[in-house]
Fold this protein.
Amino acid sequence: MDLGIEGSELRGATEMTRAKKGRGKRKRSPLFSLKSTIGLLIIFCAGYLVFAPQGIDAELPLLHKGPLSGETILIDPGHGGFDPGACGSIYFEKDIVLNVGLLLGEKLEKAGAKVVYTRTSDDIGEDLQGNTSAYRLGLVEKYQPTIIISVHCNDFEDPKIRGAQVFYNGSGNVRSEELAQFIQDELELHTGTTREISQEIGHFMLDETLVPAVTVETGFLSNPEEEILLGSPSYQEKLAQCIYNAIVSFVNAGQ
Ligand SMILES: [Zn+2]
């Protein structure tokens, strides 16, 4: 099973190829049908195509020149399928993080990034028999992302504890901490979290990869108020926007 989703670059290339093929075919037609009405129509079309292509060719590449063009970003919504992750009294972690991941991916693609997801639905493959880490790391190996974002929800015995928090591995890529801080700053600004970035996590996606990688714990499902927020589409959109803004800042800072 391959859940890797290719980004807009490939589609753009295919469209351009089609446009070029279409031009070549139609330009030949007037040579053998000048005296017919159809021939006149073809002359008109060919005349248009001679002048129009420059505009088409000039515009298409612009579609790929977003602030994140050249980046391949792997979005890893945690858990899925047989594994619900943290369970609030209303929501499962797996559903919230999938929504946030998909919203984030949409924004990243519009900004020119190639986006790869570890899952785009609740299906993470029952045949993986509970261990999805090798499968997820296999996608890292296959697509060679430049940035990795794992999305999770937190859970704690004290229901008063709340707030989004970003984790990284200090022994991993040197820029992981910087990426974590960009995201934490956005989350602080827009969600009011008072938490700080931390290395106190053991997560395969951070420990076994070499590119800048973070785990975004979007909030605590064990906190009843935060659970309501996490389950709301508008808050999920806000979380995705925070992560997106931070990724753009991070990429700009590295240029
Ligand atoms: Zn989780």
Remarks:
- Residues 221 and 227 are 5 Å apart (CA to CA).
- Residues 78-79, 85, 93, 152 surround zinc ion (CB under 6 Å).
- The longest helix spans residues 8-28.
